[in-house]
Write a structure and sequence with these properties.
- It is built from five helices and seven strands.
- Strand 4, helix 4 and strand 5 form a beta-alpha-beta unit.
- 37% of the residues are buried.
Length: 186
Amino acid sequence: MLPDFRVRPAVLADLPVLRVLIDASVRRLQADDYTPAQREGALQTVFGVDTRLIADGTYLVVEYCHPESLSETVIVACGGWSKRKTLYGADQWTDRQDDLLDPHHDAAKIRAFFIHPDWSRRGIGTLLLEACENAAKSAGFRRFEMGATLTGAKLFRTRGYLPVRNLVVPLTNGESLPIIHMEKQA
């Protein structure tokens, strides 16, 4: 694990911090891949926290722990995995399928990865992804899949995920968001 970082399950009390982190991540890190209208529409329609993942104990945060004071921490990233059918989408997303997956036949869903832009390119995304994959493996899953943003797909390709098909997510502001359905064998 990276020094001075720890991964822990997200709790509902983290929501205000997570909302700010996700907003900053989308607005700054996705600027090269999506237009301002796409980013704004995605924040209104599909991006954000899925509190079902928090309730399931499968949504994680990465905290930076100040080396001189372990009680002084800041959340720098969030993301999770799911044992439910929904491939992507936050609480406001209307196309949800909360049915449980069968780990012997279905792929665990890797979901809702966001890194604070001030902390990007430090290996935090990889740390978080490994924590999610390991937790899903412990739950019996042998495959993983995701609906990756164009921004996130770059990391996921380097971690062994392969594109399955391109998807287009309709947004409430009339825009659409291209994403990539990706898979990986455990």
